[in-house]
Specification:
6-stranded antiparallel sheet; about 35% helix; 18 strands
Length: about 475
């Protein structure tokens, strides 16, 4: 606590006072056993100036495709999955030397004034929620502790170079993997490393990590991993891991169903459960909407953009079956037409019929070798303007990554269009094989045999680049 006279000295050399903000969650956090609402005091960091109050704000998080790889690995190797939460994570970080921030006292504080009646201010000794650099300050300290040797007071884990939010450590008979998403820890360990109730065995890597966590950080055990970021994770009786977003999909349908029905120009089309999430004319309708230069109603544009924004979290995480339709709809979300709203309704009806569809990762089979089963399949359309690339990456016959995007340049032939799609798929395969090699401890083979395409011309092009011109003219 500093008095106003001292604050004026600091303010004279460039320091400012920031407002205090109270945050109260509107929903009860079901993961907390008490069922209480979460309240937090924050600093209003909207007035912070770059280069004066902070310099760096980037905080890396676990990628969603890496999360799918970890879940696939858990199913393959029979690892148990557990979740742990860091309590008030940002408050457990440390400010850099010389980093000072001042904040007004919270409203109604009993000691808001000194004996002379002058208001006091707060000097922040720790990063506070609301500070633009708070997340980075916490992650810098936490990641450094994870990789510091245990003899020096750290956790002694190895940081992945393919995804900096993945840490691992293994011995001949034990292993431990950790994925970090801000303050959520996703832990994978062998069944023998803990009892049935989750109590860790002391001499296991998992047990030593939990002991070190309890000694250095304030955290809570959230039990077996069942959900993370609105993604439900289910371990089935046969050892497979099922990932879905059923609850999110149902909320998505509920949010937009009545809005789209009210926007359609006629009665809503009948869509059965066996129909795809789009009509056969979706490509032509999207092209016509993009070429239409008439001014759109701002309310229609807002509805279209909100629809695509909410749907993106489904399509990019667990629902690869809607990637093609979603990618096409995003091209014209700023220029919606009556036909586009009909396509959105078809997309929504598909998810109303199939909210439970997700990804299933099967357990490993006897006789499989480490390093096997990483393959990508690519395809592309050839259009007079920009074509569409689509590819999917499979690991152990399970989907871990997919995309359906518009190509950045115009392809002069179907062969060029296929090569663009295959090149993007190859980039993903190279990235995943590095991550897979780290997690499974095998040596990368010198050759890459992992991209499948249906274009014979594309396969011959590397040996004869001019062949594509003659075959496609």
């Amino acid at each position: 606590m500093e008095e106003e006279s001292e604050a004026c000295i600091y303010k004279s050399v460039g320091h400012r006072l920031f407002a205090t903000v109270f945050f109260l969650a509107q929903e009860v956090y079901t993961t907390k056993r008490t069922g209480k609402r979460k309240a937090r005091i924050c600093m209003d960091g909207s007035g912070q100036t770059f280069g004066v109050d902070y310099n760096q704000t980037f905080q890396s998080v676990l990628r969603m495709d890496t999360l799918r790889v970890l879940l696939s690995l858990a199913a393959r190797r029979g690892l148990r999955m557990r979740r742990r939460d860091l309590v008030a994570a940002f408050l457990q970080g440390c400010l850099e030397h010389g980093e000072i921030a001042f904040m007004y006292q919270p409203a109604g504080h009993v000691h808001a004034f000194d004996k002379r009646g002058k208001p006091k201010i707060c000097v922040l000794l720790k990063p506070l929620y609301g500070m633009k650099q708070a997340g980075r300050r916490f992650q810098r300290d936490f990641y450094y502790w994870l990789t510091r040797p245990r003899a020096e007071g750290g956790a002694g884990l190895i940081q992945s170079q393919a995804d900096l939010s993945v840490f691992y450590y293994r011995t001949e008979h034990d292993e431990f993997l950790l994925g970090v998403y801000v303050d959520d820890l996703i832990m994978l360990y062998p069944p023998e490393a803990a009892d049935d109730d989750g109590t860790p065995v002391e001499d296991s890597i998992y047990g030593r990590f939990i002991a070190d966590m309890d000694k250095n950080w304030k955290s809570e055990d959230e039990g077996e991993l069942s959900d993370i970021l609105n993604i439900q994770v289910t371990r089935r009786h046969d050892g497979s891991v099922h990932v879905s977003q059923e609850q999110y999909a149902r909320r998505f349908v509920e949010q937009f169903h009545e809005k789209l029905i009210g926007r359609l120009r006629g009665p809503p089309p009948v869509r059965h459960a066996n129909m795809p999430p789009h009509t056969p004319q979706i490509a032509e309708r999207v092209l016509a909407a993009c070429d239409d230069t008439t001014e759109r109603d701002p309310a229609d544009v807002h509805l279209s953009q909100c629809f695509c924004g909410v749907a993106s979290y489904l399509v990019t995480n667990t629902r690869c079956d809607g990637a093609l339709a979603f990618g096409l709809l995003c091209r014209c979300m700023a220029k919606p037409t009556d036909d586009i709203f009909e396509e959105m309704f078809c997309f929504l009806e598909y998810f109303r019929h199939h909210p439970h569809i997700g990804l299933t990762y099967e357990p490993g089979r006897d006789g499989e070798r480490e390093g096997d089963d990483l393959v990508a399949m690519s395809d592309a359309s050839w259009e007079t303007r920009k074509s569409t690339s689509g590819w999917i990456v499979l690991m152990w016959q399970a989907t871990v990554h997919w995309r359906s995007v518009q190509q950045p340049s115009i392809a002069l032939s179907s062969c060029q269009s296929e090569i663009m799609a295959a090149s993007e798929a190859t980039k993903d395969v190279l990235s995943y094989r590095r991550l897979k090699a780290e997690l499974e401890s095998y040596v990368l083979p010198p050759r890459l045999d992992g991209v499948v395409t249906d274009s014979p011309t594309q396969l011959l092009t590397p040996s004869n680049p001019r062949l594509a011109v003659f075959l496609n003219t």
